[in-house]
Specification:
- By secondary structure, this protein is α+β, with helices and mostly antiparallel strands.
- It has two domains: 3-129, Alpha-Beta Plaits (2-Layer Sandwich), CATH 3.30.70; 136-196.
- Helices cover 60% and strands 15% of the residues.
- It has seven helices and five strands, in the order H-E-H-E-H-E-H-E-E-H-H-H.
- It has helices at residues 3-16, 33-45, 55-62, 87-99, 120-127, 132-175, 178-196, and strands at 23-27, 48-54, 77-83, 107-113, 116-119.
- It has a five-stranded antiparallel β-sheet.
- Strand 4 (107-113) and strand 5 form a beta hairpin.
- The longest helix has 44 residues, at 132-175.
- The radius of gyration is 36 Å and the shape is elongated.
Length: 197
């Protein structure tokens, strides 16, 4: 391959990886064309990109970036995958696909997270972490929990106080003869008024 072609390919890969901070390396060697097509379709549905690449080209394209450690000591042809909502969601998808019988030749080979190299066995550990959405949900629950508890305590005290006031008012009415007695005492006064004229 001529230097011009290598430079063009390197530039293309750099453009593809622009803005990417974390990625994983996987093995797709041994998958049939149909299986590879099915794999790519499943990844696309989850907003994940897959690019099969030679290590030497990948090293040139990622030189001086946070992605460079992923290719240190790697050999052979492999595929880079990146995307999803975060590295944890990406790792979960890789572990899921590696366990799928349909893609039995597919396996994790490593990657990079936060500028640090990930080994293949570390990807499974990362896949057990909560995803960004799960972390936000947990955080939101922790933020709202004290407010919900306070509101519950205030409404329970307010409810108890209102109940006691109502009960006290009913007791006073019973002691004074109740609302029925008041209604009957008002009735003769109304009858008496026309007679006085």
């Amino acid at each position: 391959m001529s230097k011009l072609v290598k430079d063009l390919l390197t530039d293309q890969v750099k453009r593809e990886l622009e803005g990417v901070q974390e990625l994983l390396l996987v093995n797709v060697v041994g998958l049939t064309a149909n299986r590879t097509s099915a794999l790519r379709k499943q990844l696309r549905e989850k907003n994940i990109k897959l690019l099969v690449i030679k290590n030497s080209l990948a090293r040139r394209a990622t030189e001086g970036t946070q992605l460079a450690p992923a290719f240190e000591g790697s050999h052979g042809t492999q595929a880079m995958i990146w995307g999803a909502s975060d590295i944890v969601a990406l790792a979960k998808e890789v572990v899921r696909l590696a366990a799928d019988k349909e893609f039995e030749k597919f396996s994790a080979r490593g990657g990079v997270m936060g500028g640090a190299k990930l080994e293949a066995h570390e990807i499974e550990a990362v896949s057990k972490w909560p995803t960004r959405e799960e972390q936000l949900s947990l955080l939101l629950g922790q933020i709202l929990s004290p407010g919900a508890k306070l509101a519950s305590q205030l409404t329970s005290i307010g409810g108890a106080l209102a109940s006691q006031i109502k009960q006290h008012f009913e007791n006073l009415e019973e002691a004074a003869g109740g609302p029925a007695a008041e209604a009957s005492s008002d009735a003769p006064a109304a009858d008496a008024a026309p007679a006085a004229e």
